[in-house]
């Protein structure tokens, strides 16, 4: 096969908070260090509510590069003709409006998790992306990491048989008693709480482990049931558990998922139990560095155990950036690895679990209902 000329993909960054910095640090890691030779990344614009903050961000993360355009508004980035794609690093209650404005300006979009505040907002965005022929993807970075791809490969090979039961947990002690109530984790006006902030990660593993498994044939869950613990501080969920049952397509399997922002994570973070073995993925489940596979003999005893470890330069956010650049080059509107159906499944699940848990956002938070 003839080798492709490396594509220099040009990013505009929306918001100068914590995750935007992490993402940009990874964007600037030489792709060759992860054996990527067909794309490179360049940040050409940064937008913030304050131009001073945009300049500080460029100084801190992009070596003060004077060629990067600094804007005191997000609109400046949407309108910048040098930008191929925008990366949205605002709180999720802002994702719908930010992505909508970017799409209307003809930009491709990589939007932080969770994609939106609810499924209706996401459906509206996907419709717009379709109409304007731009790429849109939720930044579910874990799906693109080499470890996740390998887990999927082993499951697909059939050596472990069908999945039956899995558990995935993401928890951390956010010290919520001492957080300002305006922090995005606690503020209901920013869609705060454990489910929307941490929930995308147990969901990505349920999707990889069950939804994507060949024996499921792409069917959604046959039932979703959830329960929430609400903190008296602001009324958002401090912990949530939910179960997805997959029984529509011949598969008979369940995912038990949990999140908490008051205790540390469990180990292993993900356990996927198949008829002929188990995959155990180490915490933290958003960026695990190892997993083990146990193979069962006919009596159900472990006869072989394998451990795989992963190391790379950077923190793991760059793999999703490579995916965006490749998809755009190929004229795709969505990724084959983390497509629109998966983000929709995630947002529909969150809507249902919030409904069952009695968590209603304050008026005005949801821009589309
Ligand atoms: N993938 C991951 O590993 C990961 C990790 C953490 C967070 N996230 C996701 O990334 C998003 C941002 O999280 P973060 O931790 O980076 O938050 P953050 O540090 O609070 O930054 C959010 C930024 O959004 C902008 N913003 C616009 N309107 C805002 C408002 N009303 N309140 C607060 N900020 C506002 C601000 O940037 P300007 O002042 O520059 O406009 C702010 O710095 C969330 O969707 C979160 O779930 C993902």
UniProtKB/TrEMBL annotation:
Record keywords, A-Z: Oxidoreductase
Gfo/Idh/MocA-like oxidoreductase N-terminal domain ranges (all copies): 9-137
Pfam families: GFO_IDH_MocA (PF01408), GFO_IDH_MocA_C3 (PF22725)
Reactions that this protein is recorded to catalyse: D-xylose + NADP(+) = D-xylono-1,5-lactone + NADPH + H(+)
Entry keyword annotation includes Oxidoreductase: yes
GO terms of molecular function: D-xylose 1-dehydrogenase (NADP+) activity; nucleotide binding
Residue ranges annotated for the GFO/IDH/MocA-like oxidoreductase domain, each copy included: 149-279
Superkingdom classification of source: Eukaryota
InterPro entries with a match to the protein in the record: Gfo/Idh/MocA-like_OxRdtase_N, Gfo/Idh/MocA_domain, GFO_IDH_MocA-like_dom, NAD(P)-bd_dom_sf
EC number(s) recorded for this UniProt protein: 1.1.1.179
Family statement drawn from the similarity comment of this UniProt entry: Belongs to the Gfo/Idh/MocA family.
Protein name (database record): D-xylose 1-dehydrogenase (NADP(+), D-xylono-1,5-lactone-forming)
Protein species of origin: Neolentinus lepideus HHB14362 ss-1
């Amino acid at each position: 096969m003839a080798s492709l000329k490396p594509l220099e993909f040009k990013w505009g960054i929306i918001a100068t908070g914590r995750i935007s910095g992490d993402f940009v640090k990874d964007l600037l890691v030489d792709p060759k260090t992860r054996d990527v030779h067909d794309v490179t990344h360049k940040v050409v614009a940064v937008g913030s509510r304050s131009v001073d903050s945009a300049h500080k961000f460029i100084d801190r993360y992009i070596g003060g590069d004077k060629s990067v355009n600094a804007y005191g508004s997000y609109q400046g980035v949407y309108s910048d003709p040098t930008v191929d794609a925008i990366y949205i690093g605002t709180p999720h209650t802002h994702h719908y409006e930010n992505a909508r404005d970017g799409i209307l300006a003809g930009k491709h979009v990589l939007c932080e998790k969770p994609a939106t505040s609810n499924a209706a907002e996401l459906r509206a965005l996907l419709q717009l992306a379709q109409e304007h022929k731009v790429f849109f993807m939720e930044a579910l970075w874990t799906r693109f990491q080499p470890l996740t791809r390998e887990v999927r490969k082993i499951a697909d090979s059939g050596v472990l048989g069908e999945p039956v039961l899995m558990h995935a947990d993401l928890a951390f002690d956010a010290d919520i008693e001492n957080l300002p109530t305006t922090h995005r984790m606690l503020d209901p006006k920013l869609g705060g709480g454990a489910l929307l902030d941490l929930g995308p990660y147990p969901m990505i593993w349920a999707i990889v482990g069950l939804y994507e498994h060949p024996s499921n044939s792409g069917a959604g869950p046959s039932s979703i049931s959830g329960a929430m613990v609400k903190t008296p501080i602001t009324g958002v969920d401090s912990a949530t558990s939910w179960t997805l049952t997959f029984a529509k397509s011949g598969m008979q399997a369940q995912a038990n998922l949990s999140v908490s922002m008051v205790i540390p994570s469990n180990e292993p973070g993900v356990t996927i139990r198949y008829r002929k073995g188990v995959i155990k993925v180490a915490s933290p489940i958003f960026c695990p560095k190892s997993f083990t596979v146990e193979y069962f003999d006919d009596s159900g005893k472990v006869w072989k155990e394998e451990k795989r470890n992963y190391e790379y330069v950077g923190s793991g956010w760059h793999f999703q950036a490579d995916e965006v650049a490749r998809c755009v080059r190929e004229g795709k509107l969505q990724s084959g690895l983390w497509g629109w159906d998966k983000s929709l499944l995630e947002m529909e699940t969150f809507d249902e679990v919030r409904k069952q848990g009695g968590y209603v956002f304050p008026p005005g938070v949801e821009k589309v209902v």
